[in-house]
Specification:
about 20% strand, 5-stranded parallel β-sheet, 2 domains, Rossmann fold, 3-stranded antiparallel β-sheet, alpha/beta, globular, about 210 residues, SIR2/SIRT2 'Small Domain'
């Protein structure tokens, strides 16, 4: 496997929640305030009870701000690597990766549901139910909820089709359309390397010695 990585010149990493577990962040299978995260990320909660949704969101912000990139994030901060992530924590950028597609958005921003203006997350800390100062519409955390379209999919497909190695890290690829990306890679003759366990140990070993600090 290490030989594949060393030979590759255009690597794409497709990452999921598993890569951030070593940084202290939860997976979708866990609970937040006694509520399964799957329910928090369902559009129904935001529509039916936005105040409760925002209470969970503010808790997420506290843990996200305490989290730091782990050795797996740092190993992928290689100049050859572009990252396509399902995560919303921003740890790839903090680790130094320059090209990152956040398919499910991020926790850093709020987006206006009417005019699409973006605002920093701290707006929600000052207001339990934040509204757009320009048009008055409700703001929504800039994350993709269940049933909403993922972001940047066309670019992600282009990246995967043009790479010479796809590394799948910390995701079981249960959700569509992300699950199609390894199949697209295979159709273009791209090698696909899976690392769903021990990413914090395996990834640094596969990449250049000394890269993971």
């Amino acid at each position: 496997m290490r030989e594949w990585v060393q030979q590759a010149e255009r690597i794409v990493a497709l990452t999921g929640a598993g890569i951030s577990v070593a940084s202290g962040l939860p997976t979708i299978a866990t609970e937040w305030r006694g509520i399964p995260l799957r329910e928090v990320f369902a559009a129904r909660m935001f529509v039916d009870d936005p105040e409760q949704f925002y209470a969970c969101y503010r808790d997420m912000l506290l843990d996200w701000r305490r989290a730091r990139p782990n050795a797996a994030h740092r190993a992928l901060a290689d100049p050859r690597v572009r990252v396509i992530t399902q995560n919303v924590d921003g740890l790839h950028q903090e680790a130094g990766t320059r090209e990152v597609l956040e398919l499910h958005g991020n926790l850093r921003e709020l987006v206006c549901l009417r005019c699409a203006a973006l605002f920093p997350a701290h707006v929600a800390e000052r207001n339990p139910l934040p509204h757009c100062p320009t048009c008055g519409a409700l703001l929504k955390p800039h994350i993709v909820l269940e049933g909403e379209e993922v972001l940047h999919l066309a670019t992600a497909i282009n990246w995967v089709a043009a790479c010479d190695l796809l590394v799948v890290v910390g995701t079981s690829l249960e959700m569509q359309p992300v699950a199609q990306l390894p199949m697209i890679a295979a159709q273009h003759g791209v090698r696909v390397l899976h690392c769903n366990r021990d990413a914090e140990t395996e990834l640094p070993a596969w990449f250049a010695p000394g890269l993971a600090r």
